[in-house]
Amino acid sequence: MSALYNAIFRNNYTMLGAVFAGAFAFNMGYDTLMNKIWDHINRGRQWKDIRHKYATSEDDE
Amino acid sequence: MAPLSTVTRALARPSVFRQAVRTISTTPAVRGDSSYSSPFKGESNSTKVPDFSKYLSEKSPKSNALISYFMVGTMGAITAGGAKSTIQEFLVNMSASADVLALAKVEVDLNAIPEGKNVIVKWRGKPVFIRHRTAAEIEEANNVNVSSLRDPEADADRVQKPEWLVMLGVCTHLGCVPIGEAGEYGGWFCPCHGSHYDISGRIRKGPAPLNLEIPAYEFPEEDKLVIG
């Protein structure tokens, strides 16, 4: 507990760095989670789900 | 007289309330004596600060500070993430979309153009002249005295490969489309006001002030030309 306090919150710059690093990690996690939810709700309706029915080979995208 | 009775009730209410406050403040503190003493005389009975010691945290001040800072930091992180996402979405929204990018480049198969022939392709709504020049035409373009031109530019500066001349087919005078293989210099001739361009697309005669413009292009493969 005290070690955590000394490591992060004691100095303003370490706290600011931790906040920005946390924001970065939070953004990535949040985006991934929201994309997963979106894909789950719309599964079977998106191009990446039905592409195999129409695209015959890798060349013609 | 309903309104009058309402008014009297409203007038009566504050006095009742004041009395209630006084009764509360005169009750003795639950635990311990308050250290607060009023600087005003005669007020010691009316202003007594209640004892808050039962709300005091039993944890160490450090752990309370840690939780407070953690909450502040988390809030800051979420705010920073939201601000970053907002700005990013605006910038992404402003950048070119996929269909615009798809139109921005034109690919030309150079095998289909025989030597000594012109091809006009449409690129971003404008015509682009591609000429497969013969050795004699390259020779002719290089033999021109550059300093005598209106817009001095060597032929080597206008082409990436000497046999392929790629330029924007818009007359630099007023924007007509010049006619190929015409004019006094064997190049292009603008029918609108009679500008003559030579085999390198340089202005030689007529009202146009500049040479025909060269778009950005590249040869990704030997026989392939990408304009844009």
TrEMBL record, chain A:
<keyword id="KW-1133">Transmembrane helix</keyword>
<dbReference type="GO" id="GO:0005743">
    <property type="term" value="C:mitochondrial inner membrane"/>
</dbReference>
<feature type="transmembrane region" description="Helical">
    <location>
        <begin position="12"/>
        <end position="30"/>
    </location>
</feature>
<keyword id="KW-0472">Membrane</keyword>
<protein>
    <recommendedName>
        <fullName>Complex III subunit 9</fullName>
    </recommendedName>
</protein>
<dbReference type="InterPro" id="IPR036656">
    <property type="entry name" value="QCR9_sf"/>
</dbReference>
<dbReference type="Pfam" id="PF05365">
    <property type="entry name" value="UCR_UQCRX_QCR9"/>
</dbReference>
<dbReference type="InterPro" id="IPR008027">
    <property type="entry name" value="QCR9"/>
</dbReference>
<comment type="similarity">
    <text>Belongs to the UQCR10/QCR9 family.</text>
</comment>
<keyword id="KW-0999">Mitochondrion inner membrane</keyword>
<dbReference type="GO" id="GO:0045275">
    <property type="term" value="C:respiratory chain complex III"/>
</dbReference>
<dbReference type="GO" id="GO:0006122">
    <property type="term" value="P:mitochondrial electron transport, ubiquinol to cytochrome c"/>
</dbReference>
<comment type="subunit">
    <text>Component of the ubiquinol-cytochrome c oxidoreductase (cytochrome b-c1 complex, complex III, CIII), a multisubunit enzyme composed of 3 respiratory subunits cytochrome b, cytochrome c1 and Rieske protein, 2 core protein subunits, and additional low-molecular weight protein subunits.</text>
</comment>
<keyword id="KW-0679">Respiratory chain</keyword>
<keyword id="KW-0812">Transmembrane</keyword>
<keyword id="KW-0813">Transport</keyword>
<comment type="function">
    <text>Component of the ubiquinol-cytochrome c oxidoreductase, a multisubunit transmembrane complex that is part of the mitochondrial electron transport chain which drives oxidative phosphorylation. The complex plays an important role in the uptake of multiple carbon sources present in different host niches.</text>
</comment>
<keyword id="KW-0249">Electron transport</keyword>
<keyword id="KW-0496">Mitochondrion</keyword>
TrEMBL record, chain B:
<dbReference type="InterPro" id="IPR004192">
    <property type="entry name" value="Rieske_TM"/>
</dbReference>
<comment type="similarity">
    <text>Belongs to the Rieske iron-sulfur protein family.</text>
</comment>
<keyword id="KW-0249">Electron transport</keyword>
<keyword id="KW-0408">Iron</keyword>
<keyword id="KW-1278">Translocase</keyword>
<dbReference type="Pfam" id="PF00355">
    <property type="entry name" value="Rieske"/>
</dbReference>
<keyword id="KW-0679">Respiratory chain</keyword>
<dbReference type="GO" id="GO:0051537">
    <property type="term" value="F:2 iron, 2 sulfur cluster binding"/>
</dbReference>
<keyword id="KW-0812">Transmembrane</keyword>
<dbReference type="InterPro" id="IPR037008">
    <property type="entry name" value="bc1_Rieske_TM_sf"/>
</dbReference>
<dbReference type="InterPro" id="IPR017941">
    <property type="entry name" value="Rieske_2Fe-2S"/>
</dbReference>
<keyword id="KW-0001">2Fe-2S</keyword>
<keyword id="KW-0496">Mitochondrion</keyword>
<keyword id="KW-1015">Disulfide bond</keyword>
<dbReference type="InterPro" id="IPR014349">
    <property type="entry name" value="Rieske_Fe-S_prot"/>
</dbReference>
<keyword id="KW-0809">Transit peptide</keyword>
<dbReference type="InterPro" id="IPR006317">
    <property type="entry name" value="Ubiquinol_cyt_c_Rdtase_Fe-S-su"/>
</dbReference>
<keyword id="KW-0472">Membrane</keyword>
<dbReference type="Pfam" id="PF02921">
    <property type="entry name" value="UCR_TM"/>
</dbReference>
<keyword id="KW-0999">Mitochondrion inner membrane</keyword>
<feature type="domain" description="Rieske">
    <location>
        <begin position="132"/>
        <end position="226"/>
    </location>
</feature>
<dbReference type="GO" id="GO:0005743">
    <property type="term" value="C:mitochondrial inner membrane"/>
</dbReference>
